[in-house]
Amino acid sequence: MNAMPRIDRTTLNQLEQTLHHEIPLSRAMGIQVVRLDAQGLALSAPLAANINHKHTAFGGSLATLATLAGWGLLHLLLHGHPPATIVIQDSHARYRRPVTDDFTAICALPESEALTTFLQTLIRRGMARIDLTASIPVGGRPAVEFAGRFVAFDSTRAPAIGPA
Amino acid sequence: MNAMPRIDRTTLNQLEQTLHHEIPLSRAMGIQVVRLDAQGLALSAPLAANINHKHTAFGGSLATLATLAGWGLLHLLLHGHPPATIVIQDSHARYRRPVTDDFTAICALPESEALTTFLQTLIRRGMARIDLTASIPVGGRPAVEFAGRFVAFDSTRAPAIGPA
Description:
- The structure is a homodimer.
- By secondary structure, chain A is of the alpha+beta class.
- Helix content of chain A is 32%, strand content 34%.
- The first copy, chain A, has one domain (9-154): Thiol Ester Dehydrase, Chain A, CATH 3.10.129.10.
- Chain A contains 4 helices and 6 strands.
- Chain A has a 6-stranded antiparallel sheet.
- Chain A starts with 8 loop residues before the first helix and ends in a 10-residue tail after the last strand.
- The A-B interface holds A 18, 22-25, 28-29, 49-54, 56-64, 67-68, 85, 87-99, 143-144, 160-164 and B 18, 22-25, 28-29, 49-54, 56-64, 67-68, 85, 87-99, 143-144, 160-164.
């Protein structure tokens, strides 16, 4: 069973503003927060701002959108309880086929058990890790498969280390 | 032994223009082509355009710079013989410590033998794969370690597939 938080559109808009404000590259990429549902958190980006020499989506943009879908999902799941800094520790991206249009990365909700362990560890130790997966589908099949390990630090307790 | 091509500054400037022209995100990131030497190809980016919520370099930017260092190195090594389209197939990034200033990704030259096999395969089969590694050092130690598998397609023979 997956954890399905209740998040309204205002909160999704706030996440989009947070991304654009704190990570200017997300604005340059034209990233939008689309929805959070049982499939996970969906972020989109237009092809035009993220195009490459083959007139398809640039690999760096694809991996970045997936990274931010993971970061955004944790941001929403934590929702400031405790106030946490979230960083990425490790990521793997597999590019399976070209993305020829505007694209959407969907980061899947973690299993309830994994999320509970993550939250309990964060509260108890001030730091916790969680593995998330995201994909960028094209025509119903994954064009990009992404796996990321994220770390959250309770920002009332410890200085954060690491990127992103 | 590593393959060390003879590349002048004009060619490096052309690579920078190619990146900025064909991948607009590289311009938004402020990417510059710094040098090609025995260490490999070095690309730099300013912190300001690539900052995150912790005022360090955003993970997406770090992985993207490393990806482009790999792409750029292959672009220089092939140098149009044969005319090839280069894409990334798989990438792994490990974020070890924060990057708190302007940063440089260095993609190492492949071993001569691996490069020879890659070029021979590309000429013979019209397509070849090669694994490259890049790092983003901070204070002499790698802050980011990156490994990417790239594929080149002889563009006179086959349509290219895959991102980046």
